[in-house]
């Protein structure tokens, strides 16, 4: 008998090569074993365009309602996609829309397998990177000056001036200025999400900023994250875990020297840059998962990579592809496990873990997609499988 679910998962379908993986993963690896219940939203670009992007908002609201979602990679349109798909508008990034509605923090974690060598050989355990996905330079305003004196001015609700700082007196010289912000509430919910995730995963936490330079701005981040930690300290200490605030430069040095097994909490820009470094250093984007966690405990699981457009065009021409489906499989297992935990269905959790082991064991025995071949350092002779042969290999082991 198939494993029964109680609450449905929110399923967000996507685009291109990952849409193809999505269907095969469900058919081959999940539906034969689980009586899969989902609330389905088609976030493929044609349907986002057809619904004036309402489907994206609906899927995020459904995630708020049901609590756990699994998302396929989606195209974020640019000028070239406008032409390719004859779009009505250059719709915003679905991930951005979902993140705004859930007010979440994104955690990225690599999937490790024996035989896949990270570029940094001392990294034995995963480094989970948490990016504060609100504010700073991502919602900054900027301007070109023509030599003015530029001030930062605060006004209260009645229009009374509350502070005035000189940014720079350009004295007739041209240049650029930028104004950015963050809110205490957003930093606090970021800190909450990080400590909660770290406790669940049994990881210590490093948070880094540059408060020696940005004394007030980054100083505020340091203060708030430190305050939030005090509420978690007893639980951390009881489990032998710790929290460290350090300067971003020092954090980079510590991470490189570490053996992993750390949650690295980053400000928005640091997280944007460092997540690409961490993903690359572990090997392949196809082995990096991502989960968005909201402050009120809603979860959205996905692969960290995009829709793998180049492989999709080859697939459409009938050529063979060797696309790595591991991160997308782990998006499904992450969501099924969380659903099982929340609904108290032990078999569902056990099934998801079995599927993860089947996937990793295929890799550990040298059954690889093309992206992993150059990284192979295992004992077995590596065998390159195409996209579907890899999925069949996992299915056989399952
Ligand atoms: P991408 O889809 O991540 O692919 C970039 C390259 O990385 C691929 O061409 C491929 O290299 C390699 N790669 C990534 N994932 C792989 C996998 N699973 N297996 C094997 N190789 C993999 O990024 P992109 O080409 O910049 O973006 C394509 C589309 O995805 C864009 O429309 C973008 O908007 C969207 N996107 C969506 C998300 C999301 O939904 N979360 C995230 C990022 C990008 P080779 O071609 O050399 O094999
Ligand atoms: Mg980036």
Descriptive overview:
The chain contains 13 helices and 18 strands. The chain has 398 residues and is of the alpha/beta class. The protein folds into three domains: 209 residues, Isopropylmalate Dehydrogenase (3-Layer(aba) Sandwich); 122 residues, Fructose Permease (3-Layer(aba) Sandwich), CATH 3.40.35; 39 residues, no CATH class. The protein has a ten-stranded mixed sheet with strand order 4-2-5-16-15-6-7-14-12-13, sandwiched between helices. The chain has a two-stranded parallel ribbon with strand order 1-3. Strand 12, helix 7 and strand 13 form a beta-alpha-beta unit. Magnesium ion (MG) binds next to helix 9.
Give the fraction of residues assigned to helices.
40-55%
Give the total of domains. 3
CATH class annotation of the largest domain: Alpha Beta
Bound compounds, each kind once, are: NADP nicotinamide-adenine-dinucleotide phosphate, magnesium ion
> What is the radius of gyration computed over CA atoms, rounded to a whole number of angstroms?
23 Å
Number of strands: 18
Q: State the low-pLDDT regions, or none.
A: none
How many individual helices? 13
Give the oligomer, counting copies of the same chain as homo and different chains as hetero.
single chain
| Euclidean distance between termini CA atoms | 16 Å
Question: At CATH's second level, what is the architecture of the largest domain?
Answer: 3-Layer(aba) Sandwich
Give me the side-by-side strand order of the main sheet: 4-2-5-16-15-6-7-14-12-13
By helix and strand content, what is the structural category? alpha/beta
Strand content: 15-25%
What is the mean predicted local confidence, pLDDT?
A: 95
